[in-house]
Amino acid sequence: MNITQQIVNAIWLGGVYSLFALGYALVFSVLGVLNLAHSAVFMWGAFIGLVAVTQLNVSVWAAIPLAMVVSGIISIVLDVVAFAPLRRRNAPRISQLISSIGAAILLVNIAQLIFGTQPQRFPLGSIPSDPLEGLPVRITPIQIIILLVAVTLMAVLQYLVVRTRAGQAMRAVAFNQRVASLLGINSGNVFRMTFFLAGALAGAAGVLFGLAYNTITPFMGDSVALKGLTVIVLGGLGNIQGAVVGGFVVAALEVFSIAAGGSNYREAFVFTLLFLILLFRPQGLVGQAAQTRA
Amino acid sequence: MDLLRSIGITEIVFQLMLVNAILGLSIYLTLYTGMFSLANAGFMAIGAYVGVVLTQNYDLPLWAALIGGMLAAGVVAVPIGLPVLRLRDIYLAIATIGFGEVVRILILNFDTLASSISGESVQLTRGALGITGIPKITETWQLLLFLVVTVYILVRLHRSRFGRAMAAVRQDEQAAATMGINVVYVKNAVFIFSAILAASAGVLKAHLTRTISPGDYGFDQVVNILAFAVLGGTSTWLGPIVGGFVLTALPEILREFKQYRGIVNGVILLMVIVYLPGGLVNINGWKRLWRRIRGQPSVTGKIQDAETG
Q1: How many Cβ pairs closer than 8 A exist between chain A and B?
Q2: How many Å separate Cα A188 from the centre of its chain?
């Protein structure tokens, strides 16, 4: 087992997981709900990227932002249809979780109807796939691109949330929606913006995932959905930096358990970890002290 | 019966409706006690595999397999419930999803795992392909009897001291504890009941569909079970039964629109949670919906709108 190679694999896979989980964490931190339709938006992002490349003949570089914008809009629609009515009624968080499941079923089935269930792939040569030469480990350009895009997007998100006024509004609403509203923050807009950002991140992750594994199906969200859950639990639910750390931890765990010959059990490892974290550190690995949690 | 058959409800569909009603009741028990546990598919898997191994490899009758499967799930539920039920809300949901996945993966790899430990070739769960050729020995009357007995026990339970404690724990755990209710005991007991019920449905369904594989008990299955309960409503035991019936029968009735089946399921789930929060079996929800359709917002609605802007 080549340790360096495994570390390289863990790093780029971790980039995708973190990107995906960031959207989960963002919605959870601002709204306090678990959006299980997030993985469906991820899958849609991959398909939109694919359609952009194959039908509109744009390059992958243009396809990623396009997929992000469209996924963001899908995500806003998701909010309007599945979350906003329940929020207005002050429905319990569990109801919102269930309505997100309904929305996920809907999105996956619409995709199935439009794109079919056969796995689809990006055309050959849409991204250089030969491994780089002269390196001790196998690295393909796509892995570097994935990592670069993921890290850039994370940095942009961090900037948006910490430095801008909109990000300040988001954090205010996350802290206390009622007080934020009293201070003149339009919480409806903040929610929509949060969903847009989360959807855009999921869309980017979808395209990158689709490029990396080169099989795009309506069900590709299923495998990351539960893993993303593990990631944000590891990072502490709703903790944005934590989601990034969690993504790399889960990817490392997975890559190393495959390398150690336990590829059949890699998911068992991941979910056992999830289980243990919830029992012993529900605030996550990098979390602060629990407040009203668990 | 001919009328039912003409709209697509054949005997096997009716049998599955009954099985799904039992599954709905299993998650209803935990929801009614205020626990959002999604471990049911995992327990269903345990029940199904233990039951099938008992009838296949040991030639036991169905009732023995049923008891075996239920016992196995009950025994597993104790060490799982004790730590996990300290969690609440979404945390409990996530932890129990994790449990379900671990069960599924363990069953998937049981043969290789057991072979490598014992040193001889073990063929019990048969990996991803699952067990096929199970005799179809579950009969409609057995399912009906099982459902009726379950409902009878539930009704008696709701009227008992323990049943009141369940409702109290749901409404306010701390208040319940203050009133001298042993919250930990109530929660764990209900969790075990729920596991046993899910396992029984697993055994019965395995001897109906004749094949089982680990893929049948994944996250999708939990979502389905949850949908039965939510669609019907979780305020009475009738809700999950109606939910299970409707969600099983509807795709068959609409089988001409087969490709839209999933879309219809998603839309129904969304509509019910948004417009009929109490589920189909909730008269107040229908009344409220009727008022909304006629354009008379209820008084409480106005206050809420003003609150949340």
Answers
A1: 137
A2: 22
Q: Does A289 fall in a domain?
A: no
**Contact residues for A37 (Cβ-Cβ < 8 A; gap 6+):** A78, A82, A100, A101, A103, A104, A107
pLDDT band with cut points at 50, 70 and 90 for residue A44: very high
Q: List the Cα angle B160/B162/B166 in 5-degree steps.
A: 115
Say what the ipTM of the complex is.
Answer: 0.81
CB atoms within 10 A of CB A145: 19
Residue A88 structural domain: 3-120+130-280
Q: CA–CA separation, B244 vs B8, rounded Å?
A: 16
Mean pLDDT estimate for chain A? 84
Closest Cα partner for A258 from A275, A270, A272, A273? A270
Strand partners, B131: B212
B137 three-class SS: coil
A116 touches chain B (CB under 8 A): no
Q: Which of A58-67, A152-161, B187-196, B224-233 has the highest mean pLDDT?
A: B187-196
Mean pLDDT within B261-275? 83
Domain at A106, CATH number? 1.10.3470
Residue B242 pLDDT: 92
Which of A27, A31, A83, A99 has the most B C-beta neighbours within 10 Å, making it the best mutation to test the interface with B?
A99
Q: Give the residues across from B212 on adjacent strands.
A: B131
> By three-state DSSP, how is residue B132 classified?
coil
A246, pLDDT greater than 80: yes
Domains of chain B, each with CATH number or no CATH: 2-260 (1.10.3470)
Return d(Cα B208, Cα B100) in angstroms, integer.
Answer: 22
Cβ neighbours for B116, distance < 8 A, ≥ 6 positions apart: none
Cα A268 to Cα A235: distance, rounded to the nearest angstrom:
19
Domain count of chain A? Answer: 1
State the Cα–Cα distance between residues B22 and B198, nearest whole angstrom. 7
Residue A292 lies in a domain: no
Q: Classify residue A142: in a domain, yes or no.
A: yes
B102: nearest CB among A93, A106, A272? A272
